[in-house]
Amino acid sequence: MDEMASSIKPNGDCDMTIMNQNIKSRAVLVDMYRERLGNDSKFAVKGLMIVFKNQLSDEVAAECTVYSNKRGFNKSDAKFLSQTAKRICDHEKLSSDDIYELQWRMPKYAAQIVRSGIGDGRIVKANGKYTCFE
After folding, report:
1. Where are the strands (E) in the chain, listed by range?
2. Cα-to-chain-centroid distance, residue 76
3. What is the dihedral of CA 129, 132, 133, 134, to 10 degrees?
4. Are 71 and 55 within 8 A, CB to CB?
5. Distance from C-alpha of 32 to C-alpha of 113, rounded to nearest angstrom
6. Closest by CA position to 39, among listed 98, 100, 109, 93
7. With a threshold of 0.90, does the pTM exceed it?
8. At 22, is the pLDDT very low, low, confident or very high (cuts 50, 70, 90)?
9. How far apart are the C-alpha atoms of 58 and 120, rounded to whole Å?
10. Closest CA to 29 of 114, 128, 122
11. Number of other CB atoms surrounding residue 24 within 10 Å
């Protein structure tokens, strides 16, 4: 796992594509993301970096959750996930234990990651279906 984790860039660059096809509903898309976040370490790291970018600057600095705004990490995950994201930004390798912990924590952020994708155009809804362009 260390080799794989070391290939992930600090900006989270790795394959985040679920499918380049129309997905029937947002709920189905969130479920797909949730499953993949728990099973695909590169996808979990990419998701981590998306959620980390949603943290407000004072939360990033303090490595904790300050606001209840449905953005960023929850209180119980903030320290570990913030430290992990910062380590990735510093080009540090993640251990297999780190990857395991990351994949255990990230599925709960699937809806937030989908919202971010819709917000920045990586996920588009057309004709009642969602398409991922990632």
Report:
1. 22-23, 123-126, 129-132
2. 16
3. 170
4. yes
5. 12
6. 100
7. no
8. confident
9. 23
10. 114
11. 10
> Which residues have CB under 8 Å from 96's CB, separation 6+?
1, 2
What's the residue count for the chain?
134
Burial category of 17 from C-beta neighbours within 10 Å (exposed 0-12, middle 13-18, buried 19 and up): exposed
CA–CA dist 91, 122 (Å, integer):
25
* 25 phi and psi angles, rounded to 5 deg: -145, 160
Q: Tokens representing 16?
A: 């985040």
List the structure tokens of 13.
Answer: 């660059």
**Contact yes or no for 7/46 (Cβ under 8 A):** no
pLDDT digits over 70-114, tens only? 788 988 999 999 999 999 999 999 999 999 999 999 999 999 999
